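Q: Now give one record:
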Amino acid sequence: MKHRNSDVPDYSSLLRLDGATYAVLGAGQGIGRQVALALAGQGARVVCVDKEASRLTGVLTELGDAAVGRVADITREDDVIGLVDFLGSHFGTLTGVVDIVGMAVPCDIADMTQDVWDQQFDVSLRHVMLVLRHAMPLMKGVENASFGFVSSVAAIRGSAHNSAYGAAKAALESLITSAAVEYGPLGIRVNAVSPGIIWTPRFAEILGDEGRMANEDNTPLGRIGEPWEIAGGLLFLASRLASLVTGQVLVIDGGVNAKFPYPKLNFIRR
């Protein structure tokens, strides 16, 4: 949609996704579930993808006729190809992909094995290349086509026990910028969000109440993020409100990354 400089667009309509079709990868729980709900709430058809069929039941019930489900492990190229074939045969074209898949496996560098290193790059990076490569043909020439991925603040700040995950996410951000340059002439945007700690069921299990309070104390906004807040960023990047945004990583972390990194050092005397 083009506007003359003097035009004032209907901003609420630019958020709408009526007639669009999106695949949400990792839609069965947490952030992925919220992304599926957000996209459908703005009128999109959503293909909810997860490697566990049991995870899809709840979100598909919530979305009703606005969604269909597909079981696939997108870290496997054959599954990605099968998913793209399914999307092409059912919908013909695809407006966008929102990819939530990725999970940190804590490991000290001194204890790092090749298997752990490879697993982190497979789960956080390799499948992104597969999705970018195989889904792109369905998106060429589609209005407001876009890819949205999930990075991490671990990509830009050192994190003990998290070296492989952080390195994979940093590489993901580089891949996103290159894809944005290559796919821009095709009218396809490529972006990501970079969350801090988000209170998903997994983080709740890992941190517990004590860990949550400690991280809230270290966050300028004074609280841990919720999955819907990451979904909101991805919804913006998918919408026409972000029609000029590509090759970008939107940090959503409550301000942690913006502040002086030593919480106990409040001032320096000279």
Helices lie at 11-15, 30-41, 53-63, 77-91, 114-139, 163-183, 201-217, 227-238. Residues 19-253 form a domain with the Rossmann fold fold (CATH 3.40.50.720). The chain has one domain: 19-253.
